[in-house]
Structures
1.
Amino acid sequence: MKRYFAGVDIGSTMTKVVIFSGIIEATIIGPTGPEHRKLANKVMEEALNLAHIRFEDLSYIIATGYGRINVPFADRQITEITCHAKGLHSLLPTVKTIVDIGGQDSKAIKIKDGKVVSFVMNDKCAAGTGRFIEIMADTLEVPLEDMGRLSLTAQKAASISSTCTVFAEHEIINKLASKETIPNLIAGIHESVATRVSAMVKKLTIEEDVAITGGGAKNIGLVKALEKKLGCPVVVPPEPLITGALGASVLAKEIFEKYEREGQIPARSSCGLQEAKIFS
Amino acid sequence: MAFFIGIDVGSGWTKAVVSKDNEIKSYAIVPSGGDYNKAARDACEIALKKIDISTKDIKYTVATGYGATMADFAQDTASDISCHAKGISALFPHVRTVIDIGAQFTRAIRIDEDGRIINFIMNEKCAGGSGKFLQVTARILRVDIEELGSLSLKSKNPVEFTTACAVFAESEAISRISEGARPEDIVAGIHRAMASKIITLAARVGMTPNYAITGGGAKDTGLVKALENELKFKTFVPDEPQITAAFGAAILAGSR
């Protein structure tokens, strides 16, 4: 009989669920937005439907990410750093450095055999995170998913001297008024984020292969800019948003099986598939 | 009749002051928008109209602020720091430290008894603690920015903010609202977070008991109260705190 495990990654902007049985059975990505935060159960339900299983069929559930504490139906919480490392290693075993650019933070993780060796993180300043790009996309009235493609048509990246997101937004409005082209501005925006992120990554010794995950990995312009700043190629996993949730589901399987080998049954959450409590 | 004009083209608002004998005769405040030159012209026109004089009566014009160079009709420009110092010493001769809280920039200026600048500092790198916090808070609470002060003073249990970043403070405020925090507690929490950031900045030029707050931020009674609570000194606030630098520019215009 096949056993099913689930990983739930509640990020600042997206909630991700992976159902895993040794292979990925289902992945669902839904928004976390303020009113959706409580609805981790809805995303879980969708994933269960996609995998054609019931909640009761899940042997073990691990929650991770920014909102992991408040998933009542999860059996255990594990930090996103550990889960990212695990998830990425299961997809791309040659990767030694992970750069994750999320909606509200960015981090770099050094891994060995799927385990975390060291990591650095920026969650203090919006510059160098996905939020910076989101805000600028709004300012330029360009859909977020078009930013990467458009930046590749730039003639010359506009130079953006401000680090702070608030100041940079103003700078971009002024540059737009003085007729700088949108592709050049977007290329400049990506350069700005890449500069910040690479300065952070370089606090660790970079070892190849380097992979990029998180929403930032979906932006081809940002990936190219980062490759230039880091001076090495960057691998993008097939679905860069799910590495955290995938790692959580892989860990769920490993932990469950370890208990089993020792002849024990892991403690489960007593909660069913109910709404997550409001965030702390 | 010798009238002078000082224009302060700020990142958020453009202010024009018409002066005579170093006294404010008229002023106007308009949004800066994208066209700084137009904003500067509009502000002057309104200020002149108020006292029924025309550009012919103006002897000299000095522009200052973020977009000073865009005001193409001004004869000269001056730094916003020196204009602030000039303006505040004319209004409050005993003041030695000025904290200016603008739409994006916060500055702290130390001046000596003759109104000369001893030292100054500005938040060039980070908008943490700037007026941007107030704009963001007003927007997400759907209240007018002018209402923030009175709202904040009603708070009994200010929300504790963990971030100093203006962008992240917005998401944090939204989270707190979705958890049911009261609007007045959100605003009071934002005011506290701003006050602590502003005081850290001002401490780098050295705070003195006789200090003044200028700029749009000084119109927010909740923020002024939060600063007073931290600093334990009474704050001097000009009647119209937003026009301090423009007034300083007008004084400089008069001396040229």
2.
Amino acid sequence: MKGFYTTARLDEVEALIGKAADVQGRSLWDDALRRLIRNRAAVVSIVILCLIALAAVFGPLLLAYDYNYMNYDIVSCAPDWWPDSVVLCNAGGTHWFGTDSLGRDLLARTLIGARVSLAVGLIATVVSLVIGVAYGATAGYLGGRVDELMMRFVDVLYSIPYIFLVIILMVIFNRNFYLLFVAIGAVEWLTMSRIVRGQTLSLKQKEFVEAARASGVSDFGIIARHIVPNVFGPVVVYVTLTVPASILAESFLSFLGLGIQEPLTSWGVLISDGANQMETAPWMLLFPAAFMAVTLFCFNFIGDGLRDALDPKDR
Amino acid sequence: MFSYFIRRLLGAIPTLFIIITLSFFMMRAAPGGPFDNQRRLPPEIELNIKAAYNLDKPVYQQYVIYLGKLLHGDLGPSYKNKDFTVTEMIADGLPVSARLGLSAMLLALLFGLSLGTIAALNQNKLTDYFVMSSAMVGITVPTFVTAPILTLIFGVYGVSLFGYDLSLPVGGWNGGALRNMILPVIVLALPQVAYIARLTRGSMVEVLHSNYVRTARAKGLSSFMIVIRHALRAAVLPLVSYLGPATAGILTGSLIVEQIFQIPGIGRYFIQGALNRDYTLVLGVLIYYATFVILLNLLADILYAILDPRVRYAK
């Protein structure tokens, strides 16, 4: 750009413009992003999480073994590099994580499990997000008796230990794969709706909402256009904490035999299988458990990082 | 104070009623009945069985009958364990579960409070970081991972320290022998220790910066006395409201722990009942759990009112 201007005068003008651009205020989001990037734990977590997600999506396509291919010659075999020498057999070949009790490649199963677990986490979170935001924003915006009634209902649901509700839902839906997402999402929305309601209550006192109302925007319009976009910050933080909670809920159910069914698998199923075999084949427990723990860690670090970034109160 | 207590107690009744109603109709909405998986019975006999359990009547009548019996403390017969009533089964498992849960809760409070206080007193020092990152591990790694891994270490491989054999039994209750209780209680308490430590640290840091603590320090009180006499009381307030969620957490965890360590508590009945569609059993345990959580939430509110003179309960 500079090459186009020949006179010193124009350079000066440009420098001034540049300076003006510099002092242009950073938006809240720029600021938050900057703080997030400075948080090393959060950045490392994002990178690791991306790697796990990539491995989950593309890994099974690249591996030599299908996740459901059984080889009865190598049942519950350790990977070749396993340090403990007193194992029954070594799986050999490219079974880097060993094999499970049906002679299936554990790496392929762990990655398919990652696919399922991450998918459950994300979809259930979206479900909870949609229900929670709609419900909370409506209750907070309408206020008064409606609000009281709607929040009373949330209180009631709160006092049921939610996982029991999911267990009943899973029994009713007969362990349906798709409804598992909905069932988990349908109980995770409670906190979301509370957060959104609280934000909405304070937001609706703000001038811009009053202005919108004065210019005749409908209630629905105000909620959709003004309230929901402004509760974004706390909701984003809570979303990053809902994903691991959903993954945990799914694994919990699968561990108890109420979630994902064979031959499909998830981290919960793998950990459950591994726990049954840990005396003879500890790798069946350790690999899926490690994957899951790392993923949950990453989400928690990102959530903490986002909270610090978006809420500069205690910097 | 007393009228506040009574009013809160009465307020809990509709909550409980809604929970019972909701779960009753949800269970009835489930496709397939408790007697579906058995041998094909002649239709007359099937009708007789259904009549014996009131299953031939319309759902709303079943509901009224169930409520009526419930008022007398009768949770009905178990559909699957023919010779037992649900009340008997719960009475059978309750002492075990209660002992397990209470021990875990006490352990969690003891360690959580001390670790949180230690971290707060050493704010932003190495000890603080160490305690807080351990707490992160405790929160992130789920019970169904810690349980098998601890079992693997202490039960299967066995640990000995200074010539003492530290290996522990991997399962069974053995009438509540201490050796059998150690692992389940620790596993159950770990996430709660972590949560409580985090909460305590947070509020303790705040309290330690407050003016009255500075005054106490200026008067020459020792750190220990300040914490015990002044800071702790204010710092445990957030913990009191955590009482309800902690109970729910321990109940949820007990499902897993009782399953893994083969402990004959009511958590196992709940899972079995859900897997076998034993409506009355599941409903009975759920009602029991919900009552428990509601009561503890109530207790938390009342404790809060007692501990915090700023909360006015007259209104």
